[in-house]
Specification:
By secondary structure, the protein is an alpha/beta fold. The chain is built from 14 helices and 12 strands. It is globular.
Length: 482
């Protein structure tokens, strides 16, 4: 009993490792959230009362606004809105803001009912939606700043990886691809590589798997990540005991990769956490929902883009010889071939010169790409940079050949899709997709296939909405290859 008491006191007295940047981030984010809520409160008050209000009304709603602001911040804290591990995670961060907003509204409604306090509905209608939108915008701006800092190596958690050399290298590859996640492996503890060797450039082997806790303390790591290989159940448990009270986090990196959280369910059995992997959502109902969204969305976008379509067609016809549209065989769902429709952005003899310029392309394997392709017209460069050349494909979405979001249909032979790449043909190809908003022509063929497979395996309506929003920002930022 005395030992347990001493351990409890040790854990309570031990400080939690908090990098200075993490403390500053929390303070800045809380301040920003308060500013957003105050602006929303002022807007709600002016929306409901305008200039016709007395001092008593002003004071009453000043107090009400203060209570809402404090309650909202507390709800964000309770919902994990200020946890560093959710920093710059996008959809996950938005979910926590939504959850905190729902809690705030619920508590406000219950409190007003219990105390019989009358709060103008127009005031609440003005404050809550406005505050929610401002919170999302504020966090989006912070997320952009954080990602920019992390791309240069700042604002990241230092990790010591534990496992085999191969599994550690795989973890490093994932963290290198997703620098925005803020995870940086600085050392490894493995048994199948000598100490002071490197499992990756600038990632030395610090020791064996049983020395992970001590080595993490030596190099100042905040997190110890255990990969799928290297430590048995007893070893993981003992490592957790060694990290207790140190403030360092313990992360498990299972062999499940490229699988989103909603498909993974944890079900403990006698203390053993079992990961249940649900089947991809490719059933009849999800397909019906996706098709409904595609049809309504594409019709709306065609009407909205009609002036742009008209001006572009005239510009192409006036500035260069040849047809306005370009058609090319592409592979659709289940490998069915169709002829894709695009605005012509190249000279009419471009396809005949394709083989001549293949040696000058910028890599990509099956993906044919050239940053400064001489076959592209002046108008073509403009419409490509703004992705206007893709707009005619909305017609394919209406007819059901394509989807708004999905794997990009590539102009390759059926034999080019071998192995895992063929699985991307299980869904309709899309005008935009995950790899288009994750680097477009900067990605290799392997990375493009990996992102497309992630989409196929983890499709959801929320993922489609996220990709559509990211597409808008990508186009505005002119992230195109041309």
């Amino acid at each position: 009993m005395a030992d347990e008491t001493d351990a409890a006191q040790f854990r309570a007295a031990s400080p939690v490792l908090q990098p200075l940047w993490a403390v500053r981030y929390r303070i800045a984010l809380i301040t920003l959230d308060l500013c957003c809520i105050i602006i929303a409160t002022i807007f709600g008050f002016e929306l409901r009362f305008g200039v016709s209000h007395d001092n008593r009304t002003t004071m009453a709603y000043l107090i009400t606004g203060g209570v809402i602001a404090v309650g909202w911040i507390v709800s964000l804290q309770a919902s994990g809105g200020y946890e560093i591990r959710h920093l710059a995670t996008g959809p996950e961060e938005a979910k926590r803001v939504l959850r905190a907003t729902a809690i705030t509204v619920s508590v406000l409604a219950i409190a007003c009912y219990a105390t019989k306090t009358e709060v103008a509905r127009g005031f609440v209608v003005g404050v809550i939606p406005t505050g929610f939108v401002l919170l999302l915008i504020g966090r989006a701006l912070v997320r952009a700043l954080v990602r920019a800092r992390r791309e240069t190596g700042g604002w990241s958690h230092r990790i010591v990886a534990v496992g085999t050399a191969e599994s550690v290298r795989h973890l490093i590859e994932v963290t290198e691809r997703a620098k925005g996640s803020g995870l940086r492996v600085i050392g490894a503890c493995v048994e199948d590589a000598p100490v002071n060797s490197e499992v990756w450039p600038d990632v030395p082997v610090l020791g064996g798997v049983r020395e992970a806790a001590a080595k993490a303390a030596e190099v100042g790591a905040e997190v110890v990540a255990v990969t799928s290989n290297g430590l048995g159940p007893a070893g993981v448990r003992e490592l957790g005991w060694e990290l207790e009270g140190t403030g360092r986090g313990l992360v498990m990196a299972p062999a499940l990769t490229e699988v989103a959280g909603p498909r993974v369910k944890v079900s403990p059995v006698e203390g053993l956490p079992l990961f249940w992997l649900e089947q991809p959502q490719l059933g009849r109902l999800p397909r019906l929902v996706k098709r409904t969204v595609d049809l309504t969305g594409s019709l709306f976008l065609i009407l909205l883009a009609l002036p742009v379509l008209t001006v572009t067609a005239i510009a192409i016809k006036v500035t260069s010889r040849g047809p306005v549209f370009f058609r090319q065989p592409r592979l659709g769902i289940n490998g069915t071939e169709f002829r894709i429709l695009k605005f012509r952005s190249m000279y009419v003899d471009a396809e005949s010169k394709r083989d001549m310029s293949m040696s000058e392309q910028d890599g990509g394997g099956v993906l044919y790409k050239m940053r400064r392709d001489p076959r592209v017209t002046a108008v073509g460069r403009i419409i490509r940079s703004l992705s206007i050349d893709e707009l005619p494909q909305l017609v394919h979405v209406v007819t059901g050949t394509m989807s708004l979001v999905g794997p990009r249909p590539l102009a390759t032979a059926d034999s080019g899709y071998t192995g895992a790449a063929r699985r991307r043909l299980l869904v309709r190809p899309g005008i935009t997709g995950l790899w288009q908003v994750s680097g477009r022509s900067e990605l290799s063929w392997e990375d493009a296939v990996r992102l497309d497979l992630y989409y196929v395996e983890n499709w959801s309506l929320g993922l489609d909405v996220t990709i559509l929003f990211r597409t808008v920002f990508a186009v505005l930022a002119r992230r195109g290859a041309y």
